[in-house]
Amino acid sequence: MGNMQLKKRGNGKLYDGLKLTAAYQFFEESRNNRDFQDDILNTTKGKGGCLKSESGF
User: Fold this and answer.
1) Are 22 and 53 in contact (CB under 8 A)?
2) CB neighbourhood size of 24 (10 A)
3) How many CA within 13 A on the CB side of residue 27?
4) What is the pLDDT of residue 44?
5) What is the Cα–Cα distance from 35 to 41, expressed in whole angstroms?
6) Spans of all domains in the chain
7) pLDDT at 11
């Protein structure tokens, strides 16, 4: 996971401060399933990522 923040103070008419945030998280997951009373186990693996951005005035 990584993130970056930018903060700026100001005396403007529209804002007195600005905060921008960007974050990214990479994840892996696996799932196991089987039918009722079945001996065979099925495994599914996946990879994903999440990107988030946020701003505040």
Assistant:
1) yes
2) 13
3) 7
4) 95
5) 8
6) 2-56
7) 81
